[in-house]
Amino acid sequence: MKVRIDKAACVGNARCWAVSPELFPLDDDGYILVEEVEVPAGMEDLARRGVRACPERVMQIMEDDNSQ
Amino acid sequence: MTEASAVSAAVPTPDHVPESAFYDFDMFHDPAYVKDPHKRIIDMVENAPPVFWTPRNGGHWMIMSHAANFEAARDTDAFSSEMIPYEQMEAMLAAMPPGTPHIPRAYPINLDPPNHAKYRQPVQGVFSPKAINALRDSIRALARELVAEIADRGECEFMSAVAEPLPVRVFLKLLGLPLEKFAEYRALVKAHLSEIAPDPSSAMKRLQQVAAAMRETVLERRDDPRDDIISLLWTVEIDGRPTVLEDIENYGVLMFIAGLDTVMQGMGHGVRHLAENPELQAQLRANPELVADATEELLRRYTFTVPPRRVARDMVFQGVQMKEGERAMLFLPAADLDSKEYPEPDHFDVKRGGKPHIAFNAGPHRCLGSHLARVELNILYEELLAGLPSFSLNPQRAPKFHGGHVIGVEELHLVWEK
To answer: Domain tally for chain B?
Structure first.
């Protein structure tokens, strides 16, 4: 599973980071640091929660079979 | 304030506003709203159009639905935060006679991109979640102290005893202003709050007082930096140039008007809900790890800020014709009570399936202080629940509220067993 992030659209709510600082690292300004997250096995649920927590809706789950 | 309030006169409705988009609501003085704001908002969410024109307060648009707020907040070309366009404002200020004292402005809250980013970027790091997390212990100590002061009284007026002093103390601490300034800033906050719809010249004067009260410290920190925000602001650059005294004052004023009133009202609305729901208090006392989620749900259920925008061009927005120069309010409290987004919106549900709210707005103007506000609210709820037994509203003295751009709690009388 991957998370795809529209990094330019991030406005720094950092709610994903509040769910999992490990999956969703921030830069020094508090904005998302990465455009894509490779989700380690066992962390899929955290990834889904982090994506759902974004008020700006800039993240998307990409399942391994490429469906959403 | 509320006692003297009267609904403002209605102005004639412009021809391009259809009857279907008309709804009469005074965002400052609507009687039902002032009596119990979020009850009235739920009534409007059910009965008013998703975008409507009200003839009150000079006539303006109200943006109600979550979808409409989300779109408008993110479309800064269509909905400008510059109630007076930037160039016009700067030209006005430049035309003032030489020697006129600096008039502080709350940049970047009232700027559009790209100027917005020039003023916001330098302070992002200061308010980042990591920077704010480092303040947790000192905020907790302040909150604990205030709660301990009231604990054996058995009753209090929560706004003046806790909600108002706490953010002012945090503000002083954060900026590095001396604690002796507490009384002065508290008086300025009081004056700021007493005018729900301030006239521009008295608001300007007050902002100058806010700036004057910090000037000595600002200049001291330039020459002798410490570990505080004012010192940090001397080290940043705005659009590639070093900051000057006026910039620091602008930021100080921004933090004053955006960071004190708001946090305090958030506490008021949240604590009112807790006081009315002893079973929720019991649940949170037994499961303190739920307080963070409860903080979010209280923010959603009682979203309380109403940012203004200027319609920047003639357009059809969400099916409604708007004209350049009209004012539109992002009525975020209604967005967060939209049943399309939140089933049973009036119901308080600690989990809500992790669904986020937009109490801190959406788009580039997302509240810069949101991380600080969250920490302050979270810690206050924790300390209040830990430091007081089950508390409730004083049945003799109903809470008092006011409308406006920040829906406020004026009085919140609590009682508990000593």
So the answer is: 1
Query: Which chain A residues are Cβ-neighbours of B76 within 8 angstroms?
Result: none
How far does the CA of residue B130 sit from the closest CA of chain A (Å)? Answer: 7
Q: CA B40, CA B334: separation in Å to the nearest integer?
A: 10
- Identify whether B246 is part of a domain: yes
CB B360 within 8 A of CB B336: no
Q: Which CATH number belongs to the domain containing residue B102 in this structure? A: 1.10.630.10
For residues B26 and B56, the answer to whether their CB atoms sit within 8 Å is: yes
* Mean pLDDT (whole number) for B24-42: 97
What CA–CA distance (Å, rounded) separates B378 from B160? 19
The ipTM (two decimal places) reads 0.94
Q: What is the model's pLDDT at position B187?
A: 87
User: B119-133, B186-200, B347-361, B364-378: which range is least confident on average?
Assistant: B186-200
In a domain, B284, yes or no: yes
User: How many residues appear in chain B?
Assistant: 418
How many C-beta atoms surround the C-beta of residue B16 within 10 A?
13
- Out of A11, A15, A53, whose CB is closest to B363? A11
In the predicted structure, residue B258 carries a pLDDT above the cut 90: no
Q: Which class is domain A2-62? A: alpha beta
Q: Which residues contact B319 (CB under 8 A, 6 or more apart)?
A: B51
The answer to whether A33 contacts chain B (CB < 8 Å) is no
